[in-house]
Specification:
This protein has about 300 residues and is an alpha/beta fold. It has 10 helices and 10 strands. About 40% of the residues lie in helices and about 20% in strands. Bound molecules: adenosine-5'-triphosphate.
Length: about 300
């Protein structure tokens, strides 16, 4: 009996770990309670990465058939470059990220990575190729070290300190009496939104994926916290193909290209300077933001 009890107990432990990890990923995209809708095709093959270019071609998506959220959205992100997506609340920005991570399949058009349709590759290989820095990072009730290394078995303490440094967290963690062993989460140290996001950045740096989804925080941070985040984001986006969802326009600072989405349609695409000169939707969003920032000071 005892012999049987021990493995079952262990299985229970593994089950809880897996459940917790899945919950974390689902929360990244606000998907808790949503049934998973995609499955590997019977002949799905692992994604073959040759650089990590991303291409959306005439993508259409509806969460419910009566309401189309994205209409014929097309864009390319060359390998290693950043595309920032801006637009009003509800325009469909986060939906682009969910489709790239293949939480849903497109209802029309296609999404390709290095020329391969997402529906033809295994979900496991796809998700290993993509790192996500979500708006609201959910941490495990465990140590800081565990929270950084959980997606990267085999990471050494030196590796963890290296990514903490790049994510602008090294000084913060060195000042904690228990350092990497500090418990965080509900029963431990409470971290600010900005600190949690930098933990997510450190986690992605350790995973080192070629493709990155950044979902910029919507809540306002003070200017010092924002500077730390932007510096860390600059490091993490360097040399990675990045889809940056900019709810507040600050992510665009390091974007090669900007896409303006409105009611699920691409209304403008170009560089910051081109779009300002065009005097259209982007320049109005920019002017609104400048005015809000001035009022906030
Ligand atoms: P914000 O800047 O406010 O985060 P967004 O541009 O990222 O907005 P999305 O989250 O992509 O917008 O949502 C686009 C539209 O899709 C919204 O009208 C939203 O209500 C709807 N939507 C989002 N998720 C779901 C879902 N799981 N089921 C049904 N509708 C959804």
């Amino acid at each position: 009996m005892i012999q049987l009890f021990v493995p079952l107990n262990f299985l229970g432990f593994i089950y809880r770990e897996i459940r917790e990890a899945l919950t974390n990923i689902e929360r990244l995209f606000g998907l808790l309670g949503e049934p998973q809708k995609v499955a590997d095709a019977p002949d799905a093959e692992p994604l073959r990465l040759t650089g990590g270019s991303v291409s959306f071609s005439q993508v259409r998506h509806a969460y419910h058939s009566e309401r189309t959220i994205l209409h014929d959205v097309s864009f390319d992100i060359p390998a290693g470059q950043t595309l920032a997506v801006v637009g009003p609340s509800g325009a469909g920005k986060s939906t682009l990220a969910r489709l790239l991570f293949r939480f849903y399949d497109v209802d029309g058009g296609s999404i390709r990575i290095d020329g391969q349709d997402l529906r033809a590759v295994t979900q496991d290989s796809l998700r290993r190729a993509i790192g996500v820095v979500p708006q609201d990072t959910v941490l495990f009730n465990d140590t800081i070290g565990y929270n950084i290394a959980y997606g990267s078995p085999g990471a050494s303490q030196d590796d963890i300190w290296r990514v903490l440094r790049l994510a602008q967290l090294e000084d913060f963690v060195r000042r904690l009496p228990e350092g990497l062993e500090t418990q965080v989460g509900e029963r431990g140290l409470k971290l600010s939104g900005g600190e949690k996001q930098r933990i997510a950045i450190a986690r992605v740096l350790l995973k080192d994926p070629p493709i990155l989804i950044l979902d910029e925080a919507t809540s306002s941070l003070d200017s010092h916290a924002e500077r730390l985040i932007l510096d860390a984001l600059n490091v993490v986006a360097r040399k990675r193909t990045t889809l940056a969802i900019a709810h507040r326009l600050s992510t665009i600072v390091h974007a090669e290209r900007i896409l303006v989405l409105d009611q699920g349609r691409v209304v403008e695409q170009g560089s910051h300077a081109e779009l300002l000169a065009a005097g259209g939707a982007y320049s109005r969003l920019w002017a609104d933001q400048q005015r809000d920032d001035t009022h906030a000071q």
